Amino acid sequence: MKVLILGAGAVGLSLAAKLSSVCDVHAVCRQRHANRIKDAGFKMTGLWGKSTCTFSCSEDVPEEDYNYIFITSKSTATESICEQFSDVIKGREVISMQNGIGNEEIIARYTDKVIGGTIITGFEWAGDAQIHVSVETGPMNLGRFPSGIDDNVLQLVELIKSAGLQVTGTENIMSSVWSKVLYNSALNPLGAVMGVPYGKEKNEHAWSIIKNIVKEACMVTKAEGVPLPWRTADEYLEFLRNFQLPNTAEHHSSMLQDISSGRKTEIEFLNGAIVTRAKKLGIDTPYNTFISEQIRFMEALQAEKQEHS
């Protein structure tokens, strides 16, 4: 079994490390990580175990017949990765293991075999090619996009299980994708705007904003016919407040980290995507619109700051 991981950052390299024990893996990553892995191995600590391992990695793709190709990059890079490696992914099974709404649709323009995936796990850089797995709030989910499950998906589920990871197959992957979008859209941008860890967002004023962000998103999922694990927005909000938020209370927003580093955030695939889809459906989303514009403003200010530095 041969697996290729494109856009391998913290998620992709960690996945490559685990899979390297059960199949042939090649990860496309930054050269500094590849050099470190070759010289000293990839080091992992935390919930996925403590280990040091080596696996094939570089900035290019060896010519092989890959059974599965993961894309684990930021959503902002999905289009460029598909363009760069269009000959590699054409006609092959490609899995989006990313944040947000819209990645599967982009990939589907380059291959007719798309598998959606979600992973709600916290990966923290501890140095070049060094990752600490800090949080895991549920199993990885995999399913055929836009819906269904088949032998190729089930084979992938078994492969990942054999590597010692929690994973389930689902016939409705968009339910899983949207469930993660609810979580990220509720906490990530507000945490970036205020510069606080997620636990601070239990404040009554922050929670008022979060409630409206979630309710608008749930209006979109209902209109699109996407079934969620929760019957109502209020039911999800209870789950968010009592389970997800406490489990990630110390986590800092990835959007804040991106803005601080001068990178584009994933806002267009989260709250921005909710707004775009809502407009097509005739649904008003003032809270998601406002928070999206705030993040875009922060991005612009940081870009301006870097230009003059």
Proportion of residues in extended strands: 15-25%
Strand count, sense and barrel status of the largest sheet are: 8 strands, mixed
Strand order of the largest sheet: 5-2-1-6-7-8-11-12
Number of strands: 12
How many domains comprise the coordinates? 2
Q: Tell me the Rg in angstroms.
A: 19 Å
At the first level of CATH, what is the class of the largest domain? Answer: Alpha Beta
Say what the CATH topology of the largest domain is.
Rossmann fold
Low-confidence stretches: none
- Can you give the helix content as a percent range? 40-55%
By DSSP (H or I, 4+ residues per run), the number of helices equals 12
Corresponding CATH architecture of the largest domain:
3-Layer(aba) Sandwich
Summing up helix and strand content along with how strands pair, one would put the structural category as alpha/beta
Q: Name the overall outline.
A: globular
Mean pLDDT over all positions: 96
Query: How far is the N terminus from the C terminus?
Result: 48 Å
H-E order: EHEHEEEEHHEHEEEEHEHHHHHH
What's the CATH H-level homologous superfamily of the largest domain? NAD(P)-binding Rossmann-like Domain
Short description:
By secondary structure, the protein is of the alpha/beta class. Helix content is 47%, strand content 18%.
Commentary on this structure:
This protein is α/β, with parallel strands linked by helices and 309 residues long. The chain has two domains: 2-170, Rossmann fold, CATH 3.40.50; 175-307, N-(1-d-carboxylethyl)-l-norvaline Dehydrogenase, domain 2, CATH 1.10.1040.10. The chain is built from twelve helices and twelve strands. The chain has helices at residues 10-19, 31-40, 78-84, 86-89, 103-107, 151-162, 173-194, 204-224, 233-247, 254-260, 271-281, 286-307, and strands at residues 2-6, 24-28, 42-46, 51-53, 56-58, 68-71, 93-97, 114-118, 121-127, 130-136, 140-144, 167-169. The protein has an eight-stranded mixed β-sheet. It has a four-stranded mixed β-sheet with strand order 4-3-10-9. α7 packs antiparallel against α8, α7 packs across α10 (254-260) and α11 crosses α12. The relative contact order is 0.11.
